[in-house]
Design goal:
Layout lengths: L5 H26 L2 H27 L15 H28 L7 H29 L2 H30 L4 H28 L6 H12 L7 E10 L2 E10 L5 H18 L3 E9 L3 H5 L9
Parallel strand pairs: 2-3
Antiparallel strand pairs: 1-2
Helix pairs in contact: 1-2, 1-4, 2-3, 2-5, 2-6, 3-5, 3-6, 4-5, 5-6, 7-8
Length: 302
């Protein structure tokens, strides 16, 4: 399945969220299971998160303008931040409902039908999550990746709920239902925390992943010689985009044209090695001591 843009995949996520809400809500109404209710509420979070992701991707797709010279790519982090908050709120609501059911247990009804409906919703979520994860790798989108991982979490949550409902049906111990709901809420909270941490990392202009930094450094090393050096290398990630800046030191006898041509080739090689990258080079004469004084900021390991 191939769509034109990340937003097309988010619309698929929206459609899946609506369908699973209907299926899981029906499963809850037929059975009265608070575990299935918690599962339906998480699907509600999926819908709101998918709508937020569609808005964020629409904003991120806007080109750079007079007030946003580097584009709007960081808008993707808004959706993951919103999703993390919604997940925590859903977890609180689930725990509230589960505690009430612990205090006042109720028998469950039509468990076979409820489990069948929930199973259909779980399979649907699993397929959509797999499609979104593949698309996130193609588009290098944190929004699609976050939505895919959230859906996969929903799948495992649903499996846990189904297992618990099956145990209730076999043993008749209705207290297992709210206990499972609380376990689901704790698992959802962990997902929300991980998303929030990833969002904060992106907003702090984190450097490229280690494997990509090593690829970049190896590429630069292949060009180094007695006459060519590089320093002041800086990288950062903003949504699906990568930004790379570095100083290029070449012999002062080179013509402006020769230096420009070398930098153009280098920028293209970096862009080919790291897709969706904006590369900025600064040309300096290697013999000038002032060029060596400006090597960028120093950082400490740890």
């Amino acid at each position: 399945m191939v769509f034109a843009s990340p937003r097309s995949y988010i619309l698929l996520s929206v459609a899946a969220a609506v369908a699973t809400i209907v299926l899981k809500t029906a499963a809850w109404r037929y059975t009265g299971s608070v575990g299935l209710l918690s599962d339906a509420m998480e699907s509600g979070v999926n819908l709101v998160a998918a709508l937020g992701a569609f808005w964020a991707l629409s904003l991120a797709a806007k080109p750079a303008d007079r007030t946003h010279h580097y584009g709007h790519f960081k808008a993707e982090y808004f959706s993951s931040g919103l999703e993390s908050v919604l997940i925590v709120l859903a977890a609180v609501a689930i725990i509230h409902s589960a505690v009430g059911r612990l205090q006042h247990p109720e028998p469950l009804e039509q468990l076979g039908l409820g489990m069948a409906l929930s199973l259909v919703a779980t399979v649907l979520n699993g397929v959509v999550a797999w499609v979104l994860l593949r698309a996130s790798r193609h588009f290098h989108s944190i929004t699609l990746r976050a939505d895919a991982h959230h859906l996969f979490t929903d799948v495992w949550t649903s499996c846990g709920v189904l297992l618990g409902i099956g145990l209730v049906k076999l043993t008749g111990l209705t207290i297992l239902d709210p206990i499972i709901a609380i376990a689901v809420a704790l698992n959802i909270t962990l997902t929300g925390w991980n998303l929030l941490r990833e969002t904060a990392t992106g907003l702090l202009d984190r450097s490229l992943p280690i494997d990509e930094q090593e690829k970049l450094e190896a590429l630069l090393a292949s060009h180094e010689s007695e006459e060519i050096r590089f320093h002041a290398l800086r990288t950062r990630v903003a949504g699906s985009r990568r930004f790379v800046a570095l100083h290029v030191l070449v012999p002062g006898r080179w013509t402006v044209q020769a230096g420009h041509d070398f930098c153009e080739r280098l920028e293209q090689e970096i862009a080919d090695a790291l897709p969706r990258s904006d590369v900025l080079t600064h040309l300096e004469p290697i013999e000038d001591p002032r060029a060596w004084d400006d090597q960028g900021f120093r950082w400490e390991e740890g």
